[in-house]
Amino acid sequence: MAFDISVLQKDLSEKVGAKLEFTRAFGDDVVSFPKEKLLPMMTHLKERHGFQFMLDICGVDYPNRAKRFDFVYHLYAPSSKGRLRLKTQVGETETIESLTPVYRGANWFEREAFDMFGIRFAGHPNLRKILTHDDFVGHPLRKDYPADRQQHTDRVQPIWFEPSQGSDSHPDKSLVPINIGPSHPATHGTLRIMGELDGEIVKRLNVEIGYLHRCFEKMAETHFYNQIIPYTDRLNYCSAPMNNVGFCKTVERMMGVDIPPKAKAMRIVLSELSRVIDHLVCIGTNCVDLGALTIFWYIFEQRERVYTMFEKLCGARLTVALTRVGGMAYDNPSGWEQECLETVKGIRKCIDELDQLLTENKIFIKRTLGVGKISAEDAIDFGFTGPCLRASGVNLDLRKAQPYYGYDQLDFDVPIGTNGDLYDRYLVRMEEMRQSLKIIEQVCKNMPAGDYTIRDKNIVLPEKKDVWGNIEGLMNHFMLVIKGIRPPVGEIYDSTEAANGELGFYLVSDGGPRPYRLKVRPPCFAIYQAFPYMMQGQYVADVIATLGSLNIVAGELDR
After folding, report:
1. Which of 138, 331, 420, 510 lies most in the core, judged by the most C-beta atoms within 10 Å?
2. pLDDT for 184-229, tens place per residue?
3. DSSP reduced 3-state for 205
């Protein structure tokens, strides 16, 4: 069933019973609606039109407007591959209904909007701060909050639970309260897990995040577009180039820029190399959490080989900033593609040996099979995407569903699990790495000739020889550095299939050199909020095992 906005427009107007405004912005379908119609409209969209995924919710601040905030929802219908943006306006002292009765995954997104903007949600099950600490005063993403104003606290919050997990949010005195992290080795100093145990069984669980919150989105409002690229590296730092690609792709689509074929091919190769090392990190660290340290050292050798390939391109390894709006920062050095093919051979051998070590290992199977399960229905309701969603049996991969950069011309498969447990998440990532290597080989063997970037003086810096060699090149360089690139006025949402799932960027431009608003849709933000529900009734040892299988990256989670 193809997505037909005209059918949706007629049906919504009749069923919702309110004046709706339908527009199209840079290819995105947008519906503006009165906030009082939120719940009936969202319910109808989900039940009648298949918009099962609530991907993102965010606010935009317009301090000089009577209705100060735009509130924006992004929905996806997998059956029709339709995407929809819904917008409403909320005054500073007004409330808006919580969407949690329709989409469970709205919980954290609404808490984030409350924390960052002060927007209040009527009927929210637990409306409290999520990224800033409880002593924090103000709302960081409002336009009148200074970008350089930091606030610190030394006060540790007590253990508490979601009201929906029991009648009392405080620990039960007859059970054992426990903190796992943030200093626990499996939480890497950035995640706090609060548990309530009956022996070794988890009765209730809650999580606290925000330990690595740097307010990336606020920094984006104070920097030029190309200056933001190094900050995107630090979102999911386990696969940094994929963040570069996602951000630049969003800006380019808004500007109507079609990058050269060689740049597209290079971005595919870098993205798939990044997917492989991200999965290696996930599996390797997960094995450490299960007690298998040797595997960690073994597979990290392959990660270092990929970093060496990155280093040959740009001189950096972990955070690379390899893309630019308009193409790539650098061309491939001579022989890079052939060396990449050799690297792929080594990684494939490593994956085969890893398969022999783990896949039929009795100890590994007992620690992973049936552990940390989540059904396809629940995964969709929470907004899962990526390997964790596919492990639950849902066939959704943007490289197939909404192909970009020529993925539709490549031969690869999307592995799908059945049980949605830790073991299936491992199997899906193992096969995804093999498919990524297959993609890399196809592209490297047929790397397009030509330039690695467009040559538009209003978008791309001239080459150094032109800056040093002629006055026109020097002037172009000066003007672009001082004035920056300037996308047209408007808004856009664009996404890519990152290692953890759908990485989306919602960009609002006022025509200036800096984003008016840049919202990141981080894949593991939606995934992690389901963690407490996945762990109820499980063993405490399975908490650590399951956490690693979800691949929560704090830079992406907290931003």
Report:
1. 420
2. 877 778 888 888 888 888 888 888 888 888 889 999 999 999 999 9
3. strand
